[in-house]
Amino acid sequence: MTPRNFLIRGLLAGLIAGLLSFAVAYTVGEPQIDAAIKIEEAAAAHEAAHAENPPADGHTHEHDTDDGTVVSRDTQSTWGLATGTLAIGITLGGVAGLASAFAVGRIGRLRPSQSTALVALIGFASVNLVPFLKYPGTPPAVGNENTIASRTLEFFSMQAISVLAAIGAVLLARRLLDSLGTYRTILAASGAYLFVVILAGLLLPTVNEIGDFPGDILWSFRVANLLTIATMWAGIGVVLTGLVGRLYEREVSAAARRDLAASL
Fold first, then answer.
1. pTM
2. Boundary-marking domain end, from 209, 225, 253
């Protein structure tokens, strides 16, 4: 039960979770992005029609790099999306694996598979769910270009506070477990975490830059975004928990055989 074994299994779990997330994002999320892009292009064409010097080639939703390379929308929605989900999945899986290795034997009397599942659940809630509730994702054509940097900083600030609060809640639970018992410890640690993130959510600025963007497309996009995130963490949690459980059973069997051999 070494950190290396947990890391390898976490990377594998992240790879599988990335593939699952890509399937969900492509089938559920990409249609909403396409709809948002059409709205963005229609608005840009309307502005160009009323401008004194409209662009000769119109507006296209493509990404131009500094060297003039153009990334087509088809590439963005396929290989680009797959690369992003796989990279994020592998990274999160590796971090979850190392965190699970650290948690073994340190969270009450939980078995390694149980503590691994708890790590994945805490990771989903603290890294993605709580920051999403304060600053949900927005599709193209939503938000002011001049506030991208500030909105990004606010999201990562909320994410950092949430993760640190989750770590603090776990450390608090370890200290209180023996004296309060499991039930009251869960209530105390959860209450402390909720107090911190709710206070942070109230103090951090609220972003309201939706404008006249269609509410149904915005809602569908955010549901798809959350579903993709949930799929990522569910994949990591289920696969990593299963792999850690098998590793633990193998190590227990090996230890039992060694003890039996030593007793002969």
1. 0.81
2. 209
Amino acid, single-letter form, for residue 10? G
- Same-domain pairing of 224 and 256: yes
Q: Check: CB of residue 76 under 8 Å from CB of residue 63.
A: yes
Question: How many domains are there within the chain?
Answer: 2
pLDDT tens digits, 99-127 = 999 888 777 777 888 889 999 999 999 99
